[in-house]
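Kindly inspect the following:
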Amino acid sequence: MAGSVTSAKRKPATQVARATTESTSVRILLTTVALAFIALFLLLPLFVVFYEGLKSGWQVYRASLQDPDARSAIKLTLLVAAITVPLNAVFGIAAAWLISRFRFRGQSLLVTLVDLPFAVSPVVAGLIFVLIFGSNGVMWDFLGRWWPGIHENHWPIIFATPGIVLATLFVTFPFVARELIAFMQSQGSEEEEAALMLGASGWQMFWRVTVPNIKWSLLYGLILCNARAMGEFGAVSVVSGHIQGKTNTIPLQVEYLFNSSEYAASFAVASLLAILALFTLVIKTVAEKRVEKQLADAQREIPDEPAAAAGSGVAAKPQGLRTNSMEGAV
């Protein structure tokens, strides 16, 4: 009787194993399709970029990158990234702290607004900035009333560096915020509450507890934000005006050289973005593993509150205390 019960218990496990195990031929087929897709759509274009860029020789490659227009595009791209990435870091930390540590009316609306650039086409976003900050836009007249020098000195926003920065900010600001929101919500606030109970101030808690905990997740978001900022084409193409040597970023310079039939130069400049993509992939992989390890360690160290309270005979702490303690920190 015991043997029949044991076999009955083992039978479903065997059935599950058979149902979730594919045959060798199916696994080989799926692996081949996946590898072929990666080779065709990822590795082959990457190889073509470097091959075409270096096909005419190292001297041509170096001369293409030292061209004044190419150097201007590189400098402008680095400038835009240097402005947008720190601003996105500040906004991302503030938004993640607000959404993950407090409960308030309109919270879901705020999360939706953070995701808005993912839903709006970059070209449409660029057009919106042209309509708002262009020479006939609403904000251009408003700024002229409060700051007459912007009209007198002919300081344009659209078709200039400020417009490129605004458009890039719009399309990149969700990256840091989304990474930090998910991480801080899963991590919880126990360590921060402990720091407050031990007498730490709000800023001490932030710099000594929060920042060390989110550093890898923050780095992950910043890397993605930087890659998008340097590679953005749609929104920047609308607001830049394509002024050669002044408002062309690296992607716009690649388009200009390719349309001008300067193929070696266009692929040479494009290789810079390819190198950035490879560097981003490496840093992203390292940061992703660190974040996963940090979350796994946090889940092992923090026991379930109701179970821990039941085992110790102490009443579980109400959830409302978390919100109140964080409000006291701020």
User: Anything to note?
Assistant: Residues 263-301 form the longest helix (39 residues). Residues 4-9, 305-330 have pLDDT under 50 and may be disordered. Residues 55 and 264 are 8 Å apart (CA to CA).
